[in-house]
Specification:
By secondary structure, this protein is of the alpha/beta class. The protein has nine helices and nine strands. The protein has two domains: 55 residues, Ribonuclease HI, Chain A; 158 residues, Ribonuclease H-like superfamily/Ribonuclease H (Nucleotidyltransferase, domain 5). Helix 3 runs parallel beside helix 5 and helix 5 crosses helix 8.
Length: 235
Amino acid sequence: MKWYVVVRGLRPGIYRDPKRARAQVEGVSGSAMKSFATREEVEAYFEKAKAQGKLRALEEEGSAYLARTDGGLKDGVGYAAAVLTTPEGRVAGSARLSFPKAKDVAEAELRGFLLALAMAPRGSKLRIETDRTDLPVFWNRERPDPWSLVPLLKALARGLDLEVEVRRVPRKEVGAAHASASWAREERERAKRDSARLAAFLERLPERYRMSALSLMERFLREGLPPSRFPEWLK
């Protein structure tokens, strides 16, 4: 009889019963399970995964808000976009932001993360999906991001009491989400309102901060206040 180990699932751990093991991964995106012939093998694998920080408890699909982000560069100008859907699958908002002097496409898409955080309801669970392979790695701190933006985004997430997970998905899934929001009349109007609200927010800032909302976050952090004070500080 085999032994089973769930590395990513509802309840990571070692299981003897295959039905209990499968219950931890079925219907859970990003889950992972392996089987071994002996207890010694499964325990060694589990301890190694634990030491490497690979154990991760995941949520069942449909329990979190979903944001699919995009970013790019054109003629030296960067753009970021995000589409937010509710746990029930309804589009809750979409927004797009342009800004100068982005270093590369990855940095541009991190601004899309900012849009996702801004649209998500405070205190909610948020799953950000991107087609890039490097951004989930940076978010999970497997290595530092070269733009030093991820720590600022995480500070904002903590201040808004958001539980954020970042995953990679195929490009076609991201494209489909943005196309759907673009073609639906109701969502086009919602996108205009969201973008106008963000633009109005930036206009209220001192001129030196208008180019990037992240600059505002940097100013907040330099004051040495705890992340939980960020929403209050914005007022």
